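so my prof wants the structure for this chain in the tokens format not the other one, which i didnt know existed until like an hour ago. anyway here's the sequence
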Amino acid sequence: METRSSRHRKRKHQRKPAKLFIWIAAAAAISFTIGFGGAFLSSRSSSSTEDPESLQAAAGIDAPKPTVTPQASAVPSKPSAAPQPLKGDQIKLTFIGDVLLGSTVENVLKQYGYDYPYTSVKPYLQKADYTIANLETPITEKGVEQKKDYVYRSSPLALPALVDSGIDLVNLANNHVMDYGQEGLLDTMKHVDQSGLKRIGVGKDIDEAYRPVIVEKQGIKTAFLGFSRVVPEQSWKAGKGHPGVAESYNYKLPVEAIQKARKEADLVVVIAHWGIEREDHPDKNQKELAHRYIDAGADLVVASHPHVLQGFESYKGKWIAYSLGNFIFTTNEISKTWDSAILEASCTRERRCNLSVVPVLTKWAKPEIMNAEEGRKLLKRLSQISIHAKVTEEGQVIPEEIKTGR
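here's what i got, hopefully its the right format
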């Protein structure tokens, strides 16, 4: 496009009569004024409406970012609350807490469809390279019901929707996976394998139960291991030639499994099942085990079982998420069991991870993203119960020593 300065230079060399020159200059000035005013009004108008990128961002869907030329500013920027950006290749991981597809949840699924629980959160589960859940229910129609307070199981018909939601791997090391005995466990393993899901934390013998699942995404090998410190009885523990759960009452076997995985993968992630139900803070066993896992070579520990959210801990440059609470579960009258979260992690081959939290409200088998006000309250509470860590208003999890400027 011809600029005002180029037009001026062109007119200077054309030697037109003075009057004509004046008329041309005036016309150019009027044209510029109209053009500038139109552009200004247009920019004001467009800034008052949501563009597709903003709508996608609000829905949690990644959109291409426009190229912006940095502009000099006389106003110094505020210190950022964000952790230092990670460099190099990164794997994006998403974690959710307890998923129960039986009991009253199954009644909801039969009424509204097996995909009903995921309709509001599917974009968040699908955008990661790998998504991990704790599946707190055997998937079987076989086996003998065990004698315990709460016994669950789910139909294999629930699995296709679980896979379609974006979940890639399930931890089965928990206190419900053998609610229908060894036969129910083996049947669960068969159905999970046939669905295409990967599984950790159980096996037909002790070797399989403590064996990691290793996946490669974005050129990064990540090993996943599952352990439970909530095992109803001795017969549930995996042994030689004996199906069962990878337990963690004694840290010896988990530590050995982590050390072995450390040699085989770039990243090691532990999914744990532990703690006291409905307690906001981890107990001493949780903290001791988490520290031992990291000392053995784990890079990230993410856990569940208490049915409520517990805080984060920054330990030796690694992260522990002590409990992600319920994600899809039966609903009771205790409101803090309705609070949940989607945990997003970006990790590098150099074993560094940045975490962020998406606040979720889960009731009647339907997790929903919280509105802004309620989300801020939840993030603030998470920050208050964390150890050597804070959660910002934007949901970023940062070590306590990083100053936010607020």
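also thought this was worth mentioning. The radius of gyration is 28 Å.
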